[in-house]
């Protein structure tokens, strides 16, 4: 273990503040990181959806439903998988002025897999509203979602939370001492694995991988989103396995490890089921009858959206006409 003096030289420092005052308002860096991630995801998803023929900024209409639901369910998921922290003896979960309150999202405590569940429900509702195919939106969102998760993880750095096991590696993370989450028995100056940084690097690398394979292999019908689930969840299994923050344990594994394992399985299932069900390309980013046409455009067809599993309408018409003449 590195000494306290050595750790200052060979380590990653943690920010000394997690919030600042702006008039009567308290601005939390954790919240700013989440907001930055949401903005980045919206911008990248809008670019990808527009490129595929969707109405510009339709992503905002979907986000108005998906983002609030993602945050609400993410918080509920965290609370109920850490029930002892919020509902244990002496805890005041109802009191908004204490850190134990279930309402205090700004103090940290939103679960990624909860956000995926809530966001999926919201995206489904938003796609029904706008006419966008759910799988088209999911594929367009996948790289942006990883980017958002990478930026959001910096919030854990500002809050000095969710770090890993003690380490003497030169990139060990400094945590202020004393700290409410400090493991009992460890001396001041102990460094910890910066799990937030591991996940940031993994997610940013994943953004590049998804953009590359999505373009090269033209993954549609939810298959790129399936790759996202496998990529993110595989990394999360590792990071969760070395984290030391309190968590419920099921059959010897943290609840989020189980969630990550399920994420990998769901991703693999979605990929192969969709590959079998939809061998061709998407005919349009919109559901039939809900297509959007730019003003002043008579007809617009993107070659990326020709479904090779179905014959073009012209060919069907011509074939019918020929058959009719032959019959006569």
TrEMBL record:
One of its GO terms (molecular function) is transferase activity. Pfam families: LGT. The keyword Ubl conjugation does not apply. Its main location: membrane. Coiled coil: none annotated. A 1,2-diacyl-sn-glycero-3-phospho-(1'-sn-glycerol) binds at residue 153. Keywords: Cell membrane, Membrane, Transferase, Transmembrane, Transmembrane helix. HAMAP family: Lgt. Residues 319-328 have a biased composition (Polar residues). InterPro entries: Lgt. This is Phosphatidylglycerol--prolipoprotein diacylglyceryl transferase. Residues 282-328 are annotated as: Disordered. Pathway: Protein modification; lipoprotein biosynthesis (diacylglyceryl transfer). It comes from Microbacterium aoyamense. It is found in: Cell membrane. It is a multi-pass membrane protein. Its EC number is 2.5.1.145. Catalyzes the transfer of the diacylglyceryl group from phosphatidylglycerol to the sulfhydryl group of the N-terminal cysteine of a prolipoprotein, the first step in the formation of mature lipoproteins. The chain crosses the membrane at residues 29-45, 57-77, 110-127, 134-152, 196-214, 221-239, 251-273. Belongs to the Lgt family. Residues 304-317 have a biased composition (Acidic residues).
């Amino acid at each position: 273990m590195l000494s306290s003096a050595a750790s200052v030289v060979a380590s990653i420092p943690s920010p000394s503040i997690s919030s600042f005052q702006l008039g009567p308002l308290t601005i939390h860096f954790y919240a700013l990181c989440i907001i930055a991630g949401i903005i980045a995801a919206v911008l990248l998803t809008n670019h990808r959806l527009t490129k595929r023929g969707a109405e510009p900024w339709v992503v905002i209409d979907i986000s108005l439903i998906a983002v609030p639901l993602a945050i609400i369910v993410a918080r509920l998921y965290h609370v109920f998988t850490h029930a002892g922290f919020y509902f244990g003896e002496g805890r005041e979960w109802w009191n908004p002025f204490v850190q134990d309150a279930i309402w205090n999202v700004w103090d940290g405590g939103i679960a990624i897999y909860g956000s995926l569940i809530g966001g999926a429900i919201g995206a489904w509702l938003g796609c029904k509203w706008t006419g966008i195919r759910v799988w088209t939106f999911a594929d367009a969102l996948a790289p942006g979602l990883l980017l958002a998760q990478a930026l959001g993880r910096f919030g854990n750095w500002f809050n000095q939370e969710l770090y890993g096991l003690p380490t003497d590696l030169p990139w060990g993370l400094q945590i202020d001492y004393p700290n409410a989450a400090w493991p009992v028995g460890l001396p001041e100056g102990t460094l910890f694995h910066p799990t937030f940084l591991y996940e940031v690097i993994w997610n940013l690398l994943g953004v590049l991988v998804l953009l590359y394979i999505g373009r090269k292999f033209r993954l549609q019908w939810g298959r790129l989103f399936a790759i996202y689930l496998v990529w993110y969840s595989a990394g999360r299994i590792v990071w969760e396995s070395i984290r030391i923050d309190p968590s419920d344990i099921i059959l010897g594994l943290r609840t989020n490890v189980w969630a990550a394992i399920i994420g990998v399985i769901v991703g693999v299932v979605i990929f192969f089921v969709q590959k079998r069900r939809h061998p061709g390309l998407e005919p349009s980013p919109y559901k039939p009858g809900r297509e959007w046409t730019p003003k002043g455009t008579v007809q617009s067809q993107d070659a990326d959206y020709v479904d090779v599993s179905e014959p073009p309408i012209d060919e069907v018409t011509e074939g019918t006409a020929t058959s009719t003449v032959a019959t006569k």
